[in-house]
TrEMBL record:
Main location: other
Keyword Manganese attributed: no
Lineage per the UniProt record: Bacteria, Pseudomonadati, Pseudomonadota, Alphaproteobacteria, Hyphomicrobiales
Protein name, UniProt field: Flagellar hook protein FlgE
Subcellular localization, as worded in the UniProt entry: Bacterial flagellum basal body
One GO biological process term: bacterial-type flagellum-dependent swarming motility
Length: 454
């Protein structure tokens, strides 16, 4: 062992502590950076020669120890497009490299980040505070399922949401065993029924009720609720329903018909109410026999607005005839699947990790599925500017489709603990100072050795 060897070893220690100080400085500087992952220091000894009888001083190396898989705290945010990952995984993002003819140009390389403070730019892309553009999967508007499995840049289309024609009306209700219509009289048998013989002018059947017979029809039927449907251009049609009991049988077996209003015109010859064309027959237990889970209204038209053929969906045994003290129809569900066109009002992130758009027609539509990527060795990712990472040979290839849960309206904070960094700073300072003392001491000993000849 020589004095020069001791000095060399001390210098490597000083250099290692300088590297550690740089890591601590970087951590403290980014303690408020969203999604930042701190860098710890891993000291490694380098042995020159060592036996059971002799050991020569070697050196020390300070290597970075990354904490890419250590999650920071998740803080709430008032911005609906902000998101955080609870668990493993990274957002897949792209980097913008230029703007050509007013349009952004990307480098077509996938990068990865935990920084989720995304907001929409003027091009419709979701860009975070580091300047990276979010990627995900498009959503099939018909099935609601993601399209493919290869992420691409999410660009929000500001076009109008096209109108959707009403094709199904969901209708569930209970009909009273004894309907209290205007003409219903407990003292008069069958007074609660709607029969052909009631009308003047006479009707051959109950398929259509004209304006001239509307008052009689209303006095012998019950309101069944109303729902607004839409044609292919989004024009609204107020579909009103009425129920009429048309037959009684001893011991059960009552039969009802359902009508919808086709016109608001006051002209006497105009058809006002149209029979759906389905008999609803009930047994003694108030259940449909046979079951009517659905029926089709052919050419449903209201005040000139044509909806075409519409399926009236009752579900399984969801039209019943049970006793009701009020003698009225109790509607438990009346909804339809159409809507008018709408303008995009806002976008947000749902709890299942989807970008959703809210339109002026009140509809919320899934626009894209945010993609997450995981790595077998996430601490081996290469750090880039803007709190992003690039895949390396040591990290392995990204695995898409896994990862943790996406938390909406939230951001992941830096995983730096200021108190811990100051503690490490004190230790590093002391170690650095001690290293300088070794250099000073070795220098003094060398001078004393050289002075021995005097």
């Amino acid at each position: 062992m020589s004095f020069f060897g001791s000095m060399t070893t001390a210098i490597t220690g000083i250099r290692a502590q300088s590297s550690a100080l740089g890591h601590i400085s970087d951590n403290i500087a980014n303690s408020q950076t969203i999604g930042f992952k701190r860098t710890d220091t891993n000291f490694q000894d380098i042995v020159t020669a060592s036996t059971s009888r002799n050991h020569l001083p070697g050196a020390v190396l300070a290597a970075p120890s990354f904490t890419n898989n250590v999650q920071g705290s998740i803080d709430a945010s008032e911005v609906p497009t902000h998101m955080a990952i609870n668990g493993s995984g990274f957002f897949v993002v792209s980097a913008r490299v230029a703007t050509v003819d007013g349009n952004p140009v990307f480098d077509n390389v996938n990068y990865y980040t935990r920084r989720g403070d995304f907001s929409m730019d003027k091009y419709g892309y979701l860009v975070n505070g580091g300047g990276y553009t979010l990627q995900g999967l498009a959503i099939d508007p018909v099935t609601g399922n993601p399209v493919g499995d290869t992420p691409s840049r999410i660009q929000i289309n500001r076009d109008f949401l096209a109108a959707r024609t009403t094709s199904t009306i969901s209708y569930k209700a209970n009909l009273p065993a004894w309907p209290k219509t205007v003409n219903a009289d407990p003292a008069i048998a069958n007074s609660e029924l709607l029969t052909v013989g009631r009308f003047t002018p006479a009707l051959a059947d109950l398929s259509v009720i004209s304006a001239a017979n509307e008052d009689i029809f209303l006095d012998n039927s019950l309101s069944g609720g109303a729902v607004t449907g839409y044609d292919e251009l989004g024009a609204p049609a107020n579909v009103q329903f009425r129920w009429a009991k048309i037959d009684n049988e001893d011991g059960g077996g009552d039969t009802w018909n359902l009508f919808y209003k086709t016109s608001d015109s006051a002209t006497g010859a105009t058809d006002k109410w149209v029979n759906v064309g389905q008999d609803y027959a009930f047994d003694g237990q108030g259940r449909l026999t046979p079951a009517v889970d659905s029926t089709t209204i052919t050419g449903l038209t209201v005040n000139g607005v044509s909806l075409g053929n519409v399926t009236l969906d009752h579900g399984a045994s969801n039209v019943t005839q049970f006793e009701d003290d009020n003698g009225t129809v109790k509607t438990t569900e009346l909804d339809q699947n159409g809507y008018p066109s709408g303008e995009l009002v806002s976008i947000a992130v749902s709890e299942n990790g989807r970008i959703t758009g809210t339109y002026s027609n009140g509809k919320t539509v899934d626009l894209a599925q945010v993609s997450l990527a995981t790595f077998n060795a996430s601490d081996k990712l290469k750090k880039l500017d803007g709190t992003a990472f690039a895949a390396t040979q040591e990290s392995g290839e990204p695995m898409l489709g896994g990862g943790g849960d996406i938390i909406a309206s939230a951001r992941e904070a830096s995983n730096v603990d200021i108190a811990d960094e100051f503690s490490k700073l004190i230790v590093t300072q002391q170690a650095y100072t001690a290293g300088t003392r070794i250099v000073t001491t070795a220098d003094e000993l060398i001078r004393e050795t050289l002075n021995m000849k005097r």
